[in-house]
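can u do me a favor
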């Protein structure tokens, strides 16, 4: 689990920045601190760091800010010009001059890493349901892991058949329109990827779910195609399909 960051609300020292950020810890004092947005500090990377350090398109943050000001970068189908914008898990990046699409996915060594994807796959993203609650009129509102919300209108609040979704389920969402294309429930037999902890990047089928107290701390056992088994908490497990993932999760050799 990533350590908690303490300090100024406006500034961030490199020495205390999240360990998965690909930046040098010595030589400079300050790092770019993500603005409040779709992802938290502990689960995101500033867009400026992505362009400069992860993708290597620029050498300095000044160059990076100029590139962004020219409106050449899109995140989840929308132009972003802020170098502090937080980019997080499953986000889609589009480099307009190169016509290049990338997705940020879990990585067993780097925690999170970008992989190249095609244009069709870049039109949607899997998002995990973080909260589900009833709003005025008996309608259901879902909040996803990337901060998005989605309202589902129901005819009968006592039997909301239009919303068979539960927390920690995954939905395949079209971007930027936010249309739900597919529902992947969190249940035994589903394919999932570990997004945090010691087994981050592990892909396997859910074999068992043992809940004692809070749902997010339930013990989940996963097994991959080679028979390897890992155990982690439910909060770190992200359903991604039935027999095969709905998205590309690693670079093909």
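np, heres the sequence
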């Amino acid at each position: 689990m990533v350590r908690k960051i303490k300090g100024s609300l406006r500034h961030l020292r490199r020495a205390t920045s999240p360990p998965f950020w690909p930046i040098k810890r010595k030589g400079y004092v300050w790092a770019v601190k993500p603005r409040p947005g779709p992802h938290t500090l502990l689960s995101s990377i500033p867009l400026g760091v992505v362009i400069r350090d992860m993708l290597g398109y620029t050498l300095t943050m000044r160059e990076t800010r100029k590139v962004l000001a020219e409106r050449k970068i899109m995140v989840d189908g929308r132009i972003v010009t802020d170098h502090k914008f937080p980019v997080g898990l499953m986000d889609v990046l589009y480099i307009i001059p190169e016509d290049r699409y990338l997705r940020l996915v879990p990585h067993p060594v780097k925690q999170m890493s970008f992989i190249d994807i095609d244009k069709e796959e870049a039109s949607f993203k899997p998002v995990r349901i973080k909260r589900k609650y009833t709003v005025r009129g008996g309608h259901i509102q879902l909040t996803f892991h990337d901060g998005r919300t989605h309202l589902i209108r129901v005819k009968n609040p006592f039997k909301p058949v239009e919303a068979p979704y539960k927390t920690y389920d995954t939905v395949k969402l079209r971007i930027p329109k936010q249309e739900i294309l597919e529902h992947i429930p969190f249940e035994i037999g589903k394919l999932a990827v570990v997004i945090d902890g010691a087994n981050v990047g592990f892909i396997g089928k859910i074999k068992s779910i043992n809940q004692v107290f809070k749902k997010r701390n339930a013990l989940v056992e996963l097994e991959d195609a080679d028979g390897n088994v890992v155990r982690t908490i439910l909060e770190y497990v992200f359903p991604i399909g039935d027999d095969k993932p709905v998205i590309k999760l690693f670079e093909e050799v």
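The chain is about 5% helix and 35% strand. hope that helps!!
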